Automatic annotation (TrEMBL):
<feature type="domain" description="Na+/H+ antiporter NhaC-like C-terminal">
    <location>
        <begin position="226"/>
        <end position="422"/>
    </location>
</feature>
<feature type="transmembrane region" description="Helical">
    <location>
        <begin position="402"/>
        <end position="424"/>
    </location>
</feature>
<feature type="transmembrane region" description="Helical">
    <location>
        <begin position="35"/>
        <end position="52"/>
    </location>
</feature>
<dbReference type="InterPro" id="IPR052180">
    <property type="entry name" value="NhaC_Na-H+_Antiporter"/>
</dbReference>
<feature type="transmembrane region" description="Helical">
    <location>
        <begin position="234"/>
        <end position="264"/>
    </location>
</feature>
<feature type="transmembrane region" description="Helical">
    <location>
        <begin position="287"/>
        <end position="311"/>
    </location>
</feature>
<keyword id="KW-1003">Cell membrane</keyword>
<feature type="transmembrane region" description="Helical">
    <location>
        <begin position="9"/>
        <end position="29"/>
    </location>
</feature>
<feature type="transmembrane region" description="Helical">
    <location>
        <begin position="110"/>
        <end position="138"/>
    </location>
</feature>
<feature type="transmembrane region" description="Helical">
    <location>
        <begin position="373"/>
        <end position="396"/>
    </location>
</feature>
<keyword id="KW-0050">Antiport</keyword>
<protein>
    <submittedName>
        <fullName>Na+/H+ antiporter NhaC family protein</fullName>
    </submittedName>
</protein>
<dbReference type="Pfam" id="PF03553">
    <property type="entry name" value="Na_H_antiporter"/>
</dbReference>
<keyword id="KW-0472">Membrane</keyword>
<dbReference type="InterPro" id="IPR018461">
    <property type="entry name" value="Na/H_Antiport_NhaC-like_C"/>
</dbReference>
<feature type="domain" description="Na+/H+ antiporter NhaC-like C-terminal">
    <location>
        <begin position="25"/>
        <end position="209"/>
    </location>
</feature>
<comment type="similarity">
    <text>Belongs to the NhaC Na(+)/H(+) (TC 2.A.35) antiporter family.</text>
</comment>
Amino acid sequence: MSVNQKGNAFALFPLLLFVLLFVGTGLITKDFSSMPINVAIIIASAMAFFINRKVSFTKKVEIFAKACGNENIMIMVIIFVMAGAFSEVAKGMGAVEATVNFGLSMLPPNLLMVGLFIIGCFISITMGTSMGTVVALAPIGIGIADQTDISLTLAMATVIGGAMFGDNLSMISDTTIAAARTQQTSMSDKFKYNFFIVTPGAILTIIILWVITSGNSIETNTQYTYELIKVLPYIVVLFLAILGMNVLLVLSGGIFLSGFIGLIDGSYTGMTFIHAASQGIINMQDIAIISIFVGGLIGLIQFNGGITYLLHFVTSRIHTKKGAEFGIAGLVSVADISTANNTIAILMTGPLAKDIADQYGVDPRKSASLLDIFAAAWQGLVPYGGQVLAAAGIAAISPLSILPYSFYPLLLLGCGIIAITLNIPKQKSST
């Protein structure tokens, strides 16, 4: 095999620099969130321009810009922006509070942790944000722990578990969007495939929580009020997305339905509705810009031979379809452990995973699911991840103390490994 066929290992240095900026800054400051992702990706992208001196700077700019404007990247960015607008408009008219209270009103007093986990799953899959779910439910978990003998660390781990369930599956989660787009499969197909793989893990988590907390209950006279109509936008978006409607149409419908309900009940005026949508778009600017720069960075790395080298390095150790799936799982796992950001991990490894999947005949629904499953699992386990840090901060406990009770993220890892080992689901490739 020629050198060109083997690629260029040095071309991967900008990617390594991107990771080192996170790890190094985190170790020095003891805060793994101190390095802004947008700054790190710009620094790494700048470094990529200094590789391969045989090519002019102008040519490199053209390659970078073309990769930034890749069709899949641009569609993903549009979906991110639309998802942000929907999330903020729904939140502004009271959908988040209504959804939380709806779930709490259904909470059985003798199954507190089971109920908390199920509510977390429901809220995260409808809201599409694990961080939002943690922030919304952590105070509830603290209240339950304060009034029972249930461990506070168990309550926080349960909240995180429910949050990661939806982060992995939600139709408006940035990880689902990134996984589906990089593997060129529909989000509804990825959802169905992914749901089949992870459901046993959720069921086992419910059983474990029921066994270890049976007998714990709380007597309360708190009345959780909600208007079911305010939960409707989340339900409609989830239902239409599962049916396979184009996600841009689904999100557009969700925005206008949320706005309409807000206008009817007085939550919005015409201008406040527009401003809420604008704020949602602004909230997604970071991830949109990062996605574009990641696309450009990967384009330069690919042009300089980095992707070819990495593909050769990985595939030379892969001899079967099962090996390819473990390779994809391993790549995204390392990326998430390094960056503590599951969306970035998927964006970084998605193109390479697509190449491996194509070469070994891995169903794109399966490769998309594996990317999301392993990224979500590690995101719920690394003590410097945003979700764990948020829960620990709200509860004023050590992030490390939560990990022994992280049942769902561990079972999510197990579900992914079993799905690869036993070739689950056994379905024909989508066309």
